[in-house]
Specification:
It holds the Pfam family DUF559. The protein is an alpha+beta fold. It contains six helices and four strands, in the order αβββαβαααα. The chain has a single domain, classed as VSR Endonuclease (Endonuclease, Chain A). It is globular, with a radius of gyration of 14 Å.
Length: 119
């Protein structure tokens, strides 16, 4: 894993928002950076390589295929993760909670400290 992925994994493994995440999760021929099964949310961290050459097209095709499987894809650039990890985690939790089935989402949003994995 890259440094931004390591930093994000350190936060996600604390189960922010009481959500479980997996890292390096396979889908077909794809391996996604992180995955929240309850929300069917894929999280990808994009470095500079994702902006070069044919990588952007490859990412679009891959995202399209993942969406066709009923998944939502959230992409974050490396500078976002490195400069404001807390905001990235908040956005991931907000997105995941908004995708939970109604009976789970109706429980309400957890307090801010729980979203960020703090006690």
């Amino acid at each position: 894993m890259t440094l931004p992925e390591v930093l994000l994994w350190r936060e996600l493994r604390r189960r922010p928002g009481s959500l479980k995440f997996r890292r390096q999760h396979p889908f077909g021929r794809c391996i996604v950076d992180f995955y929240c099964p309850a929300a069917r949310l894929v999280i990808e961290i994009d470095g500079m390589a994702h902006q070069m050459g044919s990588e952007a097209d490859r990412d679009r095709r891959r995202d399209s295929w993942l969406r066709s499987q009923g998944l939502h894809v959230a992409r974050f650039a490396v500078p976002e993760v490195m400069n404001d990890l807390e905001a990235v985690v908040r956005e991931i939790v907000r997105t995941a909670l908004s995708r939970l089935p109604l009976h789970q989402a109706a429980l309400g949003s957890p307090p801010q400290d729980r979203i960020l994995g703090r006690n």
